[in-house]
């Protein structure tokens, strides 16, 4: 039980001044021992609980409520039991429970002893604590066994006629549940005996039922839950208390017992492994609470431990899965109260947040594994710290005058420390937002005086206890009152209705806006005799008065009032409600006979006019039976109307409504009228479909516009001859077209049409005259042809018989083959001139006549041949390639050679001064081509024989020429071809100058300049570099646009011969003159690091590897030495491969390097690069063995340097290759393992 009671819920009744709310020490709360004890009494709804205060007075508390009680002397506080009832104390395992039972000689829980009359109340002026049996809830189930140990489950049934109550005075969290009754404690012998008898019966039932069976006359067990959730015990009368511990509940819930098996005493046990795992999950220690704050605390716990048992072997021990899940739950109603889950996870600690200050909490932990849930641990109690109060609500105005305001407020939650003072601040009516203190004290109300009338003041409130000051409440604006308002203006009518009037009025002009003014609207009904009665009282400026009578007069007035008083009423005004709309007229009826185009209808006035006279009647008419659209046909005061202008054979719907001052009435019932049908009206004349034929015509028509109110079922067509006025019927039927045959060609006939419906045939339509068509013309005679020129022929023909219609068109077909002729002329003429023909070509032609009747057959085909002509124009001219250009010589040169008698090989033509052309041979038009004429524009035309290729010489380089060709035969010269523009290429470039810009013993870098200045900028100039080999032949080294080239892999001291050539699109230029360049001698190769051998403290021997002679030139060596950080100085120069260095200083470092020198035959020396440096460290003042080790270390360092520097390029490349191979294998393994699998 907590040292502070949780705040009461809404609806609880408990005086905050009771002295029994003192807080006991936590030790007394948990152990139930000590000088003080606290008990929490739960009062159920509909019940009352009577307590006695310290001053001797009685206080009655009605439920629902929770009453905390404290006993300062260690005994249960006195609780009065109603007459006829006694309290019995049951003590078991150190926990006391109180039973309130009817006063009877023997207590038999399972018997039935009816209670006919309720017990009298305990006091004359106080209600009874025990309610009437009729309003009591059903009896409870009593469960023995206290939380903290594994108890046996047994049920005890109490009859509904025994309103027994169970209470517990234990101080631990097992005292009361959420719905527990307060305890009544009277320790006497009778209570002890009842306790002993009850314990005996409980033990007997446990022995008979096996700890879980049912007893006769006991209610059936509650439905079982699944194994995943522990069962809950339903307490029907609200007393409660979960007396069964969590472990036993979980085992019972997971045992899956069947009702039939329980009767036979058979139980289905869990397998040993599951039971062992369940026992392991249930063996969890209670959690530890640390870092307790006002609104949070830290909870720590440990994993469940294996229970110690002698019978358990190593093989039977369950395997604890990893990880486990834990659930932390807390309760504020006791250890056996309702718990709420606050954390669920796999960790072993959690921070509980959102707690209430100064509140007792009970926390427990529960282990979970898959579908098994262990028993909760023992609950641990802790109390949160106190803190400053919660922010109070804003103060409210309880009363006020023109110069004062009385403020009240409610106490906020004190959070464990009693509120000592309240701090009320205000802005003094300045409205600047700056607040000053106007009251500080413990009271909950305060009166602010000396204020200004009709002014606004802002207030805020804060509470203070021993822990600190709360935050301020929200700012509230309050106003002081004004003087009594003046009489307002009379109300005005804003809107009127049949049973309501909407009135509005104005605020008195003299009253300020800050004053709270209220209004009273009074109404007097005419001839009622009750006078003015209030209809509205409020602060609004408008109100709708409802539930009035229609067309009635009412009087109104309004008065204003505030806190200072009430004004005189305004002047009286009268308003009248509107009349109601009339009821619908009676259903209209037909008067007389219905005509095809009209009918007469009549109606009766409505039975209820709504309080006003009917002003007019409105008749609406709708065509059709659906009534989709209505049309107004009459509006007036008469009670009948003739509807005319109707369609015959059509259905109409009509209705009527009336209108008065009150509005429009509902529509009357609908009257349906059907007008009779008449024969259809005249049709439109039939029309001709297509062209009339010689012996028949096809006619088509449409239905008449007026069908007479009935569908048209038949049509009749009559024909009138060309020379008589008699008509005859040629068609009768429902179709809308027909074909009339047996007519004469070229005659005019008249046709008429009439339609019929169920009422008969209508009139004939107007006459439609149609003339039959004539026949097609006869076949024409064969046409005649006359050649005017090689490309023009005149064709003429004669007109054939017309067959009753003049020929309107002739069609002439022309073609080169008899089966592929096409129409080339269509017209009324008897001749046609064909142009654009090819000379010396065969053509075929035929003619056909056409009139309005159709197309006649074609005439016989006639063959026509055009005469020969000059050749056609050359279509295309092509430029010969350079390879083809060298194969042909000039015809003129060839003739000269033949005349001279000497035969020379064909000359090579330059594309810069020659143009080789070829062309396609044109059509000769029946006469063989004898020659061609080549026109170059400015030059004299060139005549060549019947060839199709020719090379034009002696042209200017890089020059464009316009060329056209003309063919000639025996009949004349043909037309020139189109002009083709051809261009000669520019002259090839001259060779550049060749220079050597860099050289070594194995390479030569050559450079050449740009081409000659005459080369066009647009040309791409490239170079061709060649070198002479040992056989005197020039081989190609480089060919491209660059101007430099490096010749590698040459021999030392050797002369090489080069030449260069430039070329571009114009061709290859001449080679340059020969250039000779010589490579220098090569220097010696670098030596490896020399070896050092210390002889004594002042001398050492330096040795190095020798080099062989280079092409007969001897090799000498140069040894340099450097002491400390000075410069290198030459110590030796000669052909020896070792040197003894003397006069060394003992404490100085020496560095040595050596290079090879080539003694050339021309007395010049070539020095090679120096070898790596070797260091000689000074001799330390140590033992000889240490010195030897130092010397060995120096050699070792030299050798290691030499080993590191002796790696070749091949070895480095192989090492890198191996590293990459290992990395690739690792990457492939990772991809195979993590990605693919």
UniProtKB/TrEMBL annotation:
Family: Belongs to the FNDC3 family.
Signal peptide: none
Disordered: annotated segments: 172-238, 1171-1204
Gene3D superfamilies: Immunoglobulins
Record's compositionally biased regions (Polar residues): 225-235, 1171-1184
Residues in Fibronectin type-III domain copies: 283-387, 391-484, 487-580, 585-678, 682-775, 776-869, 899-987, 988-1082, 1083-1181
Matches recorded under Pfam families: fn3
Keywords: Golgi apparatus, Membrane, Repeat, Transmembrane, Transmembrane helix
Membrane topology: Single-pass membrane protein
GO annotations of cellular component type: Golgi membrane
Subcellular localization, as worded in the UniProt entry: Golgi apparatus membrane
Residue intervals passing through the bilayer: 1213-1236
Domain of life: Eukaryota
Protein name: Fibronectin type-III domain-containing protein 3A
Record field: compositional bias (Basic and acidic residues): 185-206
